[in-house]
Amino acid sequence: MNSKEIQxxxxxxxxxxxxxxxxLIYAKRANKxxxxxxxxxxxxxxxxxxxSAEASDMSxxxxxxxxxxAYWCGLADAMWTAIGLAIGTYLNWxxxxxxxxxxxxxxxxxxxxxxxxxxxxxENKKIVMTISALFILIFFTVYAASCFVxxxxxxxxxxxxxxxxxxxxxxxxxxxxxxxxxFLAESASDFMQGIVMFVALAVVVIVxxxxxxxxxxxxxxxxxxxxxxEFFGLANPTVDADGVQAVxxxxxxxxxxxxxxxxxxCSMLAWGLGYFGMPQVLLRFMAIRKETExxxxxxxxxxxxxxxxxxxxxxxxxxxxLFPTALTTxxxxxxxxxxLSTSFFPPILAGFVMAGILAATISSSxxxxxxxxxxxxxxxxQGIIKKKASDKEVMWVTRIILLxxxxxxxxxxxxxxxxxxxxVSFAWAGFGAxxxxxxxxxxxxxxTTRAGAVAGMIGGGGMVFLWKxxxxxxxxxxxxxxxxxxxxxxxxCIVAVSLLTPRPSAEIEADxxxxxxxxxx
Length: 521
Known about the structure:
Elements: H1 3-30, H2 34-39, H3 46-73, H4 75-106, H5 113-120, H6 127-159, H7 163-212, H8 215-224, E1 233-234, E2 247-248, E3 251-252, E4 258-259, H9 262-269, H10 279-287, H11 294-322, H12 336-344, H13 347-385, H14 391-412, H15 420-444, H16 450-469, H17 483-500, H18 506-517
Antiparallel strand pairs: 1-4, 2-3
Helix pairs in contact: 1-7, 1-13, 3-4, 3-7, 3-10, 3-11, 3-13, 4-9, 4-10, 4-11, 4-18, 5-6, 6-7, 6-13, 6-14, 6-15, 6-16, 7-11, 7-12, 7-13, 7-14, 8-11, 12-13, 13-14, 15-16, 15-17, 16-17
């Protein structure tokens, strides 16, 4: 390891030490009870709520996956995805946050998402709770794997070290940190990490524009590539059998631009539907100390999201101008942010910018691990297997499950050629289709029944697998992003089965009315 790499490593170690310190500060409070550990005692302020929700959501995908897509095939895929995410973020904060904060208290002070769904329908046999907990385990394990891939790519690219070793090391760090501090530590560090991510993006793009000779030079280069700088076209890299882009006389080769029609646009915009089912975001709505502070949180979140997404897309476009032949596969393209940072800045400063990627990864993976573990320990173990389990016992089970989930995620992440964007898109579709329709109908349709909830979760989650692995292979109209058809199918299942089964009890309807009309802080 040379002196430059050592300086970068030192800067990143300083950052990681700060993150661990936050975990230690909150560890004592987190271990007071399961409510403190899993939901922070509903004590988050508006700034921490907003920043932790978005930082935990965006993950290393924001700094690596999204710029990588823009670098590889141009503006359309990345920008339409960003637009869909921005719209989804706004609607989620606007229509879901207040009602969920209020309803989660009405529904027996629910502290996890499976808790809420189960208590919402006042179920004795915990079928809704079990199904939702199992889906959370499945999809968050995949999500955590995407974060570990990010860690492995980051450290192997920076220091030339073995991908597998560095991926496992990053996973161990995240696991230890999550075990230490629980939800409060996670949310407080996510606030800091959200700031680091934002600053890292802004600094890289400002310096990059200067190095490129101005904004005009970047745009001119993008326009010279067929389909690269179009909303309704897609660049088509010329690749060999191994997926490596051809380079002739130091110029990357592209074929004729691909058409980008309404079907492709709908696929990318459909990303926004995922927000209604994202546990890591929905939990922040439940954890804010006052429902009246959600309006301020929404404004903070939207400013962060819109600017961060726009910059991330532009970094990919800018990177293709500055380093046109440096990254020749779709997987390698996700390293463009790293390449720009290490090329622009002195090693120490580059290390702190690289901490932005680490920040994004940690802020997401700790959320994913904690929510997945709590889904089992709180909802399956204490809710079904051992109903009289003490809080202390539940938290020990949580830590054991954290370890098991991390090991499975590590196994999934062993393939260093994984494309982060693709891994995230599958897990995102899973959550969006499994929980998104159910969340909306649970909050806003009194007639929703427990049987309808079960049908919606199984139908939506199952359709994600079926569409991704079977139907999409037919191509054409069937190649649409699996979240959209699965979301629609889940909604149909909820409505149809709810109308075919008896109305909810008077007590369930009274809870619905209390959440609709009451003001609970």
